[in-house]
Write a structure and sequence with these properties.
The chain is of the alpha+beta class and about 600 residues long. Strand 3 and strand 4 form a beta hairpin. Helix 4 crosses helix 5 and helix 6 packs across helix 8. The longest helix has 18 residues. It starts with 5 loop residues before the first helix and ends with a helix. The model has no long low-confidence stretch (mean pLDDT about 95). InterPro entries: 6-blade_b-propeller_TolB-like, AB_hydrolase_fold, Peptidase_S9_cat, Peptidase_S9A, WD40. It holds the Pfam family PD40. GO terms for molecular function: peptidase activity.
Length: about 600
C-alpha cells in the first residue's frame, strides 16, 4: 500500500480544552476541523457537534460562564501572542471583543462565581510587566478596572469562593514562583505574600480550598526534588503534604471549590496517573478516593467539572490515540468518549507505538527517550529522525503526533529524547543544563545519536536532527559540535544567537529567559561562545530552517542570520518563512506546506 501523504496525516483532528456549560448539559471544546482550533459544543456523547467560532486564527481557550449561556474565549492574530478576550453568546451566536487592545497581551484569570465579572492580567500599561484587571461581563476595552499594578510576570489562579479575593502567581523562572492573595475589597488592594522563600522553589497549580481558608498547590518546597501536592493554611502559613509523588512530579490538581472534589495527576516517566478524590471538609489534608478512570492512551489532562461535580471532562492522547475529550463519572470511574475527532480515514491500527528507552550519556547520566520503529523494516536500513523538544523546561511524552506517524509511515524511525534540562524528572535533572552547563545537554544529543548508530535497526549514516524553538538551537548546536553524526538538520523557529535572541525577544519574557540561559549583562561572552552562529563553519550537514514572521519569542532574525551564514560557507540550506505565523505553525495550509517541504528535503539529502 502506498503511504498516505502529509496532507492526509495533518487532517487527523484533535479535540481538547473542554469546559462544561452552566446547566451541565452542554460541553464546549476546541477542535481543528477547519484548519485552526475553533470553539465547538456538544449536548451528548458522540453527538453532532456545533461549530461556534469561524476564524482563520486559532482559538487558544474557551471557558463557560458559571451562571449564563455564554463563554469567553481567547485568540491572537498571526501568531503574535497578543491574545484578546471575546464573549460568545451561546443562544444568539453573537461575539464581542471584550478587551479590544490589540497591542497588549491578555492572560485569562477566570470567571467570578456569580458570572458577573472576570479577571485577567495584561501588559497594557507597560509591555514588560503584567497588571491585574477585573472587568464586568458587559464592559469592554478601557472599561476594565486596573486593580493592581505589577512589576513582573503575574498570572491569576482564580477567585476565592466568596469572590472577594484573587489568587496571584508571580514567576521569576520556570523553577521559581511565588503566590499572593489580592483582596479586592480593600481600599487600596495590595498583594499578601503567601510563600516567602530562599532559592528556587516552585509553587504551581494553585486552587482555593472550599472554605477559602487555604490553598492546594504543587510545590518542591523543602528538600524535595520533585513536586508534591500540599495544603497551605492561610491563617498559620503552615504547609502540609497531601500527596507525595514518590519520586515523580505531581503535575497539578483540578479542584471543585464547592464540593472539594478533585483530580490530581502524577507524571511517571511521561505517562499520566490520575487520582480522583474528595477532600474532608473538617481536615483539609484528608480525602477519600474514587475509582481511577480507564482511559485510552498514556497522557491526560485539562480537567473541567460539571456544575455538581458529579462528572468531569478531560482530554486524553497516546502514541496511537489521537486526542479526544472524555467525560468521567466520578462515582464509578466510567469514562465515555464525547468527541469524535477523526483520523482522516487512516486506520488507527496503522499507528505505531513507542518504547521508553534510556541512553547513558558522557557522565553516566541516564537520558530517557521514546523510540518508535516503523512496522516493516530491515535491520540496519532505517533512517531516523531525532526530534528534540523546546523549552528547555519541557518534556516529550507519549502523546499523539500526526507528523511522527507520517514519517513512520514513510519508513523513518523516530526518537524523542528528554535530555538534561527537561522537566518531569526532578529539579536537579532540570538544572543540569543551566547557564554554563548548557552544552552538556548538547552532549546528551551526541550520546543519543551514537546509541542510535549502534541500534541494530538503524542506518548509522542516515540520522537527522529536528527541533523547534530551544530544540532548534539544539539542532544547530548538534550540527556545529558533532558534525560527523548528522545526515541533515531541521531547525524550526530556533535560536541561532543567544545574544540577539535575548536582545530582541518580547520584553515581557526576557527576564524569565535570562534566568535559564544567562544574562546579557553578566554572561554575554559565554552566550556568544555557545551560539551556533559563531561556530557555523563547522556545519557540514544540509540544513532546513523554518520560521514565522510574527514570532514574538524567537524573532525571525534568528532564521535569517543562520541561513545567510550557512549558505556563505557552501553548505546546502533551505529557508521557509511564513508571514502569517508566529512561534510555530497553527494554520493547516502552512503546516501542509512546511512538512511537505521537510519531506522533500529529507528525500533529497537522507
Amino acid at each position: 500500500m502506498e503511504p498516505y501523504d502529509i496532507e492526509r496525516y495533518l487532517n487527523i483532528r484533535s479535540a481538547y480544552g473542554a469546559s462544561f456549560g452552566p446547566d451541565g448539559e452542554r460541553l464546549s471544546f476546541l477542535m481543528d476541523t477547519t484548519g485552526t482550533s475553533q470553539v465547538w459544543t456538544l449536548e451528548e456523547p458522540r453527538g453532532w457537534p456545533e461549530q461556534r467560532t469561524f476564524y482563520d486564527e486559532r482559538v487558544t481557550f474557551a471557558s463557560w460562564s458559571p451562571e449564563r449561556p455564554e463563554l469567553i474565549f481567547g485568540m491572537d492574530e498571526g501568531g503574535n501572542e497578543r491574545a484578546q478576550l471575546f464573549r460568545l453568546d451561546a443562544e444568539t451566536g453573537a461575539i464581542e471583543n471584550l478587551t479590544a487592545m490589540p497591542d497588549a497581551k491578555h492572560r485569562w484569570g477566570g470567571w467570578s462565581h456569580d458570572g458577573d465579572r472576570f479577571a485577567f492580567t495584561s501588559n497594557r500599561r507597560d509591555e514588560a510587566v503584567f497588571d491585574v484587571y477585573v472587568q464586568g461581563r458587559d464592559e469592554t476595552g478601557a472599561d476594565a478596572t486596573l486593580v493592581y499594578e505589577g512589576d513582573g510576570w503575574l498570572s491569576l489562579a482564580g477567585w476565592s469562593p466568596d469572590d472577594s479575593r484573587l489568587l496571584v502567581s508571580q514567576a521569576y523562572s520556570n523553577f521559581d514562583q511565588d503566590l499572593y492573595v489580592l483582596d479586592l475589597e480593600a481600599d487600596e488592594p495590595e498583594l499578601e505574600h503567601l510563600t516567602p522563600h530562599e532559592g528556587d522553589v516552585r509553587y504551581g497549580s494553585a486552587s482555593w480550598a472550599p472554605d477559602g481558608g487555604g490553598i492546594y498547590l504543587v510545590t518542591d518546597e523543602g528538600d524535595a526534588d520533585t513536586l508534591y501536592l500540599a495544603y497551605l493554611d492561610l491563617a498559620s502559613g503552615e504547609l502540609e503534604t497531601v500527596i507525595d509523588g514518590d519520586g515523580w512530579n505531581v503535575d497539578g490538581i483540578a479542584l471543585d471549590d464547592e464540593t472539594g472534589r478533585f483530580v490530581c495527576s502524577r507524571n511517571v516517566e511521561g505517562y499520566t496517573e490520575l487520582t480522583v478524590g474528595e477532600f474532608d471538609a473538617d481536615e483539609p489534608t484528608a480525602y477519600k478516593t474514587f475509582p481511577e478512570p480507564d482511559l485510552p492512551g498514556g497522557v491526560a489532562g485539562g480537567v473541567s467539572f460539571d456544575p455538581d461535580a458529579e462528572r468531569f471532562a478531560l482530554s486524553t492522547s497516546g502514541d496511537t490515540v489521537n486526542t479526544n475529550v472524555f467525560v468521567v463519572d466520578i462515582g464509578t470511574g466510567a469514562a465515555d468518549r464525547w468527541t469524535s475527532a477523526p483520523t482522516a480515514g487512516i486506520p488507527r491500527e496503522t499507528f505505531d507505538e513507542s518504547d521508553l528507552v534510556h541512553v547513558e550519556s558522557f557522565d553516566e547520566l541516564e537520558v530517557p527517550g521514546f523510540l518508535t520503529l516503523p512496522d516493516d523494516h530491515e535491520d540496519g536500513q532505517i533512517p531516523v529522525i531525532v526530534d528534540i523538544h523546546g523549552g528547555p523546561e519541557s518534556q516529550r511524552r507519549p502523546s499523539f503526533s500526526s507528523v511522527k506517524q507520517y514519517f513512520l509511515d514513510r519508513g523513518y524511525a523516530y526518537f524523542e529524547p528528554n535530555v538534561r534540562g527537561s522537566s518531569g524528572y526532578g529539579a536537579d535533572y532540570a538544572a543540569l543544563d543551566d547557564v554554563e552547563k548548557r552544552m552538556d545537554s548538547v552532549a546528551d544529543i551526541e550520546a543519543c545519536a551514537e546509541w542510535l548508530q549502534d541500534h541494530p535497526a538503524i542506518d548509522p549514516d542516515r540520522i537527522t536532527a529536528k527541533g523547534g524553538s530551544y530544540g532548534g538551537f539544539m539542532v544547530l548546536a548538534a550540527l556545529t559540535e558533532y558534525p560527523d553524526l548528522w545526515a541533515a538538520g531541521i531547525d524550526i523557529v530556533g535560536i541561532a544567537n543567544f545574544v540577539t535572541f535575548l536582545e530582541n525577544t518580547g520584553d515581557w519574557r526576557r527576564e524569565l529567559r535570562e534566568a535559564e540561559y544567562g544574562s546579557l549583562a553578566e554572561d554575554r561572552e559565554f552566550l556568544e561562545e555557545i551560539s551556533p552562529i559563531n561556530n557555523v563553519e563547522r556545519i557540514e550537514a544540509p540544513l532546513f530552517v523554518l520560521h514565522g514572521e510574527n514570532d514574538p519569542r524567537v524573532p525571525v532574525g534568528e532564521a535569517e542570520q543562520i541561513v545567510e551564514e550557512v549558505r556563505a560557507h557552501g553548505v546546502p540550506v533551505r529557508k521557509l518563512i511564513f508571514d502569517d505565523e508566529g512561534h510555530g505553525f497553527s494554520k493547516l495550509a502552512n503546516r501542509i506546506e512546511a512538512y511537505s517541504e521537510i519531506a522533500d528535503f529529507l528525500d533529497e539529502h537522507v
